[in-house]
Amino acid sequence: MGDDSIGGRLSEFIGNLGGFLRKFIFSVLSVGPIPNHIAFILDGNRRYAKKHNLKEGDGHRAGFVALLSMLKYCYELGVKYVTIYAFSIDNFNRRPDEVQYIMGLMHEKIEGMLKEESFVRSYGVRVHFLGDLKLLHQSVRIAAEKAMRVTANNTKFVLLICVAYTSTNETVHSVHQCFKEKRRPMDKFQEEEQQQQQQGLIKLVDLERNMYMALAPDPDILVRTSGETRLSNFLLWQTAFCYLYSPAKLWPEISLWNLVWSVLNFQRAYPYLLKTKMKRY
Ligand SMILES: *[C@@H]1O[C@H](CO)[C@@H](O)[C@H](O)[C@H]1NC(C)=O
Ligand SMILES: *[C@@H]1O[C@H](CO)[C@@H](O)[C@H](O)[C@H]1NC(C)=O
C-alpha cells in the first residue's frame, strides 16, 4: 500500500468522523425547534482577501466555498429555506471592474449549479432569484432564469438568492403590483364589493402576497458576519420577529459552530418569538 492511499484513507476517516460528529450534534439540536428559514448576509469577502493578501476576487471565491458548506449544513439540519443576500442594488455603484468581476463569477456559479454533480442537482434544491433582475448583466439574467426553470420541480430544499435586491425596492414593487391588481377591470358584483371595502383598498395580505419574498415564510434567524449589526436594506419587512445573529468572523471564515450557536440561541428565544409572532396583525 503506498503512502498516498494511506493518506487518502486517513483523510477519508477524518472526513467521516466530521460527518458523524455533525450528525450527532444535529440530532441533539433536533430535540428543540429547528428553524424553518435562515437568511444570511455574506459580509466580509473583501476584508478576508485583504487580511490574507489575496486578490479581491479570491475573497469572493473563498466566500462561495463557505456558502456551499453552510448550505449543506442547513440541509442536513433540516432547515427548509435559506435566503442569501448576494448583491444589492447599491452594490452596482461599486467600482466597475469589481461589478464586472462579480457578475462574471455569478454567471460561472449559476452555470455550475446546473451541472450533474452540483449541490443543487444532487440535493434536489429549488432555486429562486429575487430582486430587480433586469439590472443584472444579460448573460447572468439568462442563466438565472434558466436555473429557476430547471429546478422548478425540486421540493426538498429552497434556496432564495437576492440579487439586485433591496427591501425598499421590494416594497415599492409590491405596492405597484397591488395597484395593478386593484385596477383590473371589474364586473358589476366586484365593483359593489369594492365600494364596500374602499376604506382599506390595499391590505396587509395584498402587500405580503406581492413581496418577492412571498415564496417563503419569514426567516427565523438572520446571520450577518463581520460583526456588522446593520440590516443594510435586507428583508426589513420580513425580519420583524427574527432572531438576529452577528458573529465577528468574516464570511469566508464562518463555520459549523456559528450555525449551531445561532440555532441554540434561536431555541432559547423561541417561546418569546412564537408569542410575539402570534400577535402580528
Ligand atoms: C416539471 O413538472 C411539470 C409537470 O409535471 C412538467 O411539465 C415539466 O416539464 C417539469 N419541468 C422540469 C424542468 O422538469
Ligand atoms: C424598483 O422597483 C420598481 C417597482 O417595481 C421598479 O420600477 C424599479 O425599476 C426598481 N429598481 C430600482 C433600481 O429602483
Automatic annotation (TrEMBL):
UniProt xrefs under Pfam families: Prenyltransf
GO annotation, biological process: polyprenol biosynthetic process
Family per similarity comment: Belongs to the UPP synthase family.
Alphabetical keyword list: Transferase
GO MF term list: transferase activity, transferring alkyl or aryl (other than methyl) groups
Lineage summary: Eukaryota, Viridiplantae, Streptophyta, Embryophyta, Tracheophyta
Stated name of the protein: Alkyl transferase
Gene behind the chain: LOC104603885
EC number: 2.5.1.-
